[in-house]
Amino acid sequence: METMRAVVAQTPGGPDVLSLVELPVPAKTGSEFLIRVHAAGVNPIDVKTRAGKGPAALAAWPLVLGNDFSGTVVESPYDAHPIKVGDEVYGMTLVPRLAGTYAEYVAVPALFVAKKPRNLSHPEAAGVPLAALTAWGAVVDVAKAHDGQRILIHAGAGGVGHFAIQFAAFFGAHVIATGGPRNLGWLRDLGAREVVDYTSAPFEERIAPVDIVIDLIGNVSADTGSRSLQVLKPGGIVVNVPSGSWPTLVEEAKAVGVRATEYRVSPDATTLSVITRLIESGDVRVYLDEVYDLAEAAAAHETLALGHTRGKLVLKVSD
Questions:
Q1: Is 254 found in the same domain as 146?
Q2: Strand (E) positions, the chain?
Q3: In whole angstroms, what is the distance from residue 74 CA to residue 34 CA?
Q4: How far apart are alpha carbons 265 and 40 in whole angstroms?
């Protein structure tokens, strides 16, 4: 346990800056866990950071990427901690403040770690934390999803989107989801009552007014964010998730009499434990589009950047 395999971004750049290297196993301190990582989620924020955007301004290079993990506890914060050595856990960390999860071991604060759902494999579990916590924050904490509400969710087939649909439906909202032609039936299976093929006609011409827009695109594609304001009821709210995707969000929303906020995820084990119960009960499920080996991280980034992933991409890190 002196060294471990890890994928690092040597410098900011394209997928080719990712390489498999040997690094020292991290030492835990204070109330941290040391976790043997079995699988790591791949998320858009990883691609953005690798490219030198967003959180990359805080990074020291070379940088180990990856926020999600599922694995086994090697060292616990203290002997009487309810999560013991050998327990299967999952959670997320904060790159670049902390080292990432594209590595065989990671040291993680105790407040970021929850027991893994019993009915999920490690690859499946690794696809949950960041995306599900983001969806929960936007749909439940901010939008207060409830019966009678009409919620439009853009990019419903993506990692965050497929959880957002399930959470909003679970709490009784009438969910409308946008997606490509191949995903429309699947979006209904997830709980969307209406689905809109964004390739066939402008979505704003096909949707009755809604109370909430969960914007997982912003204005980086066809001004999706700005066009969403046309379908919001007066006083409704748009929740924008992708950082930097809609710089004029607040001003545009105010001009048409609706509310607006960005949302940024926090690694919260308490909320993740609630999500665990929903997964174990069968009310929420995670969909893996593809599982790559750790050494194939660059290929996973290339696939994710295409923008057509259904559910999640995951790296298999260790057995």
A1: yes
A2: 3-9, 18-24, 32-42, 63-64, 68-75, 88-92, 105-109, 113-115, 150-153, 174-179, 194-197, 210-215, 232-240, 259-262, 288-293, 312-316
A3: 5
A4: 17
317: which 2 tokens? 């890190």
- In eight-state DSSP terms, residue 257 is T
- CB-count exposure of residue 242 (10 Å: 0-12, 13-18, 19+): buried
Query: Bridge-partner residues for 64, per DSSP?
Result: 8
CATH of the domain at 195: 3.40.50.720
pLDDT digits (tens, 9 = 90+) for 69-92: 999 999 999 999 999 999 999 999
pLDDT (0 to 100) of residue 1: 74
Considering the domain boundaries, does residue 280 fall inside one? no
| Under 8 Å between Cβ of 20 and 5 | yes
Based on the structure, what is the number of domains in the chain? 2
pLDDT along the chain (319 residues), means of 10: 95 98 97 98 97 92 97 97 98 96 98 98 98 98 97 98 98 97 97 96 95 97 96 97 95 97 96 98 98 98 95 96
**Which neighbouring-strand residues pair with 314?**
41, 291
For residues 151 and 313, is the Cβ–Cβ distance under 8 A?
A: no
Q: Is the pTM of this model over 0.85?
A: yes
